[in-house]
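Good morning C.,

I know you're traveling, so I'll keep this short. The sequence:
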Amino acid sequence: MSNREKAIIIGGGISGKLAARVLSDFFKEVIILERDDETNGQLARKGARQGDHLHALLHAGQYGLEALFPGITETFHNNGAVKINSTKDLAWFHHGVWKLRYDGGKSTTLQSRPHLEWHIEQYIKNISNVTYLYSQNVKNLLHQQEGNRIYGVEVSTNDGNSKTLTADLIVDASGSSSLTAHFFKKLNIPIQIEKVAIGLCYVSKTFRLPKSQTRDWKIKLIYPNPPDEKIGGTISKIENDQHIVTIIGYQNSIQEKEVLKDESGFLHLANRLPKADIYNELIHAEPLSKTTVYRVPHISWKRIDKTKQLPKGLLLIGDTVCRIDPVFGQGMSIAIIEALTMQKLFKNNNDDLDKLQTTFHKKIAKILSPIWNMVITEDFRYPGVSGKKPFGLSIQQWYSKHIFLLSSKNQKVYESFIDVMNLVQSPTILLRPWIVKKVLVHRFFMKRKDN
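The tokens, ready to paste straight into the viewer:
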């Protein structure tokens, strides 16, 4: 335990919980300030509007979460989460082809976000030096001009009372529309923001499917083949013998009013998918929830690592720094990797908090850079998507397209792709000579076939 007295975390979502778990080992007291009221059980929080929709914990996220919260994976499974074989139980239609299905020896856990988040929160509440405060609205950061340091927060509660809290460290884990960005404007601190407008819409509903002897999957993903197809969907088994269905549409291709006008709206939307698999499952399914809609007009990356005169005593984590395209299911796992990075830095550099702040933001930028590039390379397959395009976009898209197609017929290529998508390997492994050779040969035979 460090001699540092107190850390305050703004936001009690998944990123905030992860930060609290890490900092509880290095501060005498950790306080989580959560805007929402305390939930009574495994319910989606008002402040996490995406909570009703499909979430994924990738391999890197699953391994990292287990390292931070030993035994939590077994807790998930013992309480209803679904353990699956990552490549055998996943049916994935991607860019016009079905991925290979086989026993690759790796497992994944399927569960709703409220189920996952609630169990993490129970773990946090058993850490003696962490205090979870609900209904706390952080209105302002306390800034000391001399030394350019954040030393506390101004908070109001739902009953109208206000208070100030001071700490050695403030962590902003409040999400993409955080207070920090507005506060920087007040201090005339410019932040470079990379933004890509994708016009994404999420529509989700929970069902109970009829029993079936022929259903040989636990999760099925129907991905659109851009640029012509803009709507895709996933059906995934979760706890309590339920299935969550999330349908996504790029470039504002889903009209919310049409989906919500009656109970048949969701079924009509499912019928627009490139394959009828999900629609056919839902024809005789029992709806268990209302239809919920969540929009992501754009994704953004705040380049905190490049921000000059960043106030000391402040760390930013999760969506507060980078809101990634949620279709790829990487957000939670990125936050877990960032928390592990924070943990390692505190273990190695606990005495110099100011140096740690700079190093942390630079390290997570290195984590984010290849993921951001990989995601927007796919998003830019739609001509209407706007933003700064990555260097060599057309070449990257050409190459990755062949990787996708090879994943339907070459197990070794697919395994490499799976490792990249699950954030356990760098995208550079897809440039290994043997994979490049496979891509070139594949392209050659495709060209001959076309001729």
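Safe travels,
E.
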